[in-house]
Amino acid sequence: xxxxxxxxxxxxxxxxxxxxxxxxxxxxxxxxxxxxxxxxxxxxxxxxxxxxxxxxxxxxxxxxxxxxxxxxxxxxxxxxxxxxxxxxxxxxxxxxxxxxxxxxxxxxxxxxxxxxxxxxxxxxxxxxxxxxxxxxxxxxxxxxxxxxxxxxxxxxxxxxxxxxxxxxxxxxxxxxxxxxxxxxxxxxxxxxxxxxxxxxxxxxxxxxxxxxxxxxxxx
Length: 219
Hints:
By secondary structure, the chain is of the alpha+beta class. It has 2 domains: 2-99, Roll (Outer membrane lipoprotein wza fold like); 104-216, Roll (Outer membrane lipoprotein wza fold like). It has 5 helices and 13 strands. The strands form 3 sheets. It has a 6-stranded mixed β-sheet. A 5-stranded mixed β-sheet has the order 8-7-13-10-11, with helices on both faces. It is elongated, with a radius of gyration of 22 Å.
């Protein structure tokens, strides 16, 4: 983790977290002279850019009386100026790592690469399956299960007919995923939560010991 101090006309901007630092000036190690008013994206670019484990959706900007999160994806790909603010004297920019937050989806069952997938931006069931290597030959594409945590903390099960979605090209039926969701590709149709948990409980036990998702267990 780096702590940098950047100078412009006596003004200071602090940069911390998952950043790469490749520049140095005559002011000494860790200090850079800004050439003029600078937005966040340009500032990060001038200092080597975010690190490989940076959570680009949750960059924190702190200034006196204000604390806000900005999304670098929106700033770069959508030109959203609210996510690319002008920096001011006294600002603190903190780039967190993805491991600091739960931005993960678990893809289990009959996929070629079961495991954990990081959500970098919005992601649906189709993308999650693709990033997990697609279905194995035994995967039941007509009954892909998505396990979500409801507003009351209880588990909610959704079943998606992936085969029909692909066949008809109707991606409006795609299931949007949230951090902590579990995607399970069974070998046969699953009708109830109890049946689902009886199959995946061993895997959940391992996952819970690492990621602490025991709210998904059957009460």
